[in-house]
Amino acid sequence: MKFNSYLAETASPSPWRGQTSAPLLRDSFARTFNYLRLSITERCNFRCEYCLPHGYQATAEQAPELSRQEIQRLVRGFATLGLTKVRLTGGEPSLRKDLCAIIADIAAIPTVKVIALSTNGYRLSRDMQDWANAGLSAVNVSIDSLDPVRFAKMTGSDSLTQILKGVQQTVDAGLLQVKINAVLHANTDTSEILRFIEFVKRQPVTVRFIELMETGNSQQYFESNRQSSTRLVQYLLQNGWTQMVRANNAGPAIEFQHRDSVGRIGVIAPYASGFCDTCNRLRVSAQGRLHTCLFASNSHSLRELLQYDAQQAALQQRLDDLIARKTAGHELHEGNTGINNGFSRIGG
Ligand code: SAM
Ligand code: SF4
């Protein structure tokens, strides 16, 4: 269980907490990368309308998912280059039967201090205790609406009550840090915002609104449903919420607190200027392809270097070379979504 080390780490300006030996992955803009978002499956049991509107469909030419052993070699390779945090994502990572074993393998790597999971929460109630026992530190649960009818329409799943039960049990158990992610889109009206504000009054969680991003397969949806976070931020500031000071190693969210609320509201605005300047994350797809950005114009296979333990040095060299070539930022403002054809393919 690494929740305590997570708290210690976020409070400290140094991601190394006294350890200085690991070399850092660095790009040509002097950004260093200690955070890997690893997709472990493209499969999903939901049909979120902005992500997988027709549900997951397997294709014959699809390469198999990285095996547990390949994942272990991959994370070990990153860890020797300064990785301290891994997020398992997808698709829906909880659909993998060996998820607990994957978590435990990563937890056994001493320099990895935080293991987080992004999930739609469908299996949270059933599995959160096992995930925590395996070594998970934090869980991000996607809940786009607190209205059951709207939730079902957006996700294709009538499971809001079950997911909220899982959130409550996870908070009560105190084993995992819990955050909720809600995509900010045209339907996120004032009544929806007020439901979330009411929710965090009682729940010690952060609800983070993430601006809808365009992908290669969702241009039309994006044009009809995009919503900037500016109005939300104005609303918060006019209603007693204050912006919190950002820690040096904070993620991309700007967080707000309120004296009547035990939880927080966060805003992630990828279209804001300077968003990419402090990027510290890299992505690997479920087939073992490195994406140096969520909207990169190409990806690079690492899989052939995950077949034997003896390939670790070659893997590290390849990571060093590829990351040195990371571009300054995404080009979403120009409508350039790179090869991102939906987050479920890369791992959002
Ligand atoms: N299935 C898990 C879940 O839903 O949390 C993990 C994978 S999902 C792709 C990761 C996150 O990406 C979710 O919070 C989802 O809402 C977000 N996401 C997917 N497509 C998006 C888009 N076009 N714009 C913004 N966020 C998106
Ligand atoms: Fe599945 Fe997550 Fe995409 Fe929804 S956002 S369809 S839960 S991968």
Bound molecules: S-adenosylmethionine, iron/sulfur cluster
Strand share of the residues?
A: 15-25%
Distance between the termini: 24 Å
Q: Quick one: how many beta strands?
A: 14
Specify the CATH architecture. Answer: Alpha-Beta Barrel
Q: What helical percentage do the residues reach? A: 25-40%
Shape category = globular
In CATH, the topology is named TIM Barrel
Give unreliable regions as ranges.
1-20
> In DSSP terms, counting alpha (H) and pi (I) runs of 4 or more, how many helices?
11
CATH superfamily: Aldolase class I
Provide mean pLDDT, rounded: 89
Compressed to H and E, one letter per element, the order equals HEEEHEHEHEHHEHEHHEEEEEEHH
CATH class: Alpha Beta
Rg from Cα: 19 Å
Estimate nothing, just give the exact number of structural domains. 1
- Backbone structural class: alpha/beta
Arrangement of strands in the largest sheet:
9-10-11-8-7-6-5-4-3-12-13-14
Q: Main beta sheet: strand number and arrangement?
A: 12 strands, mixed
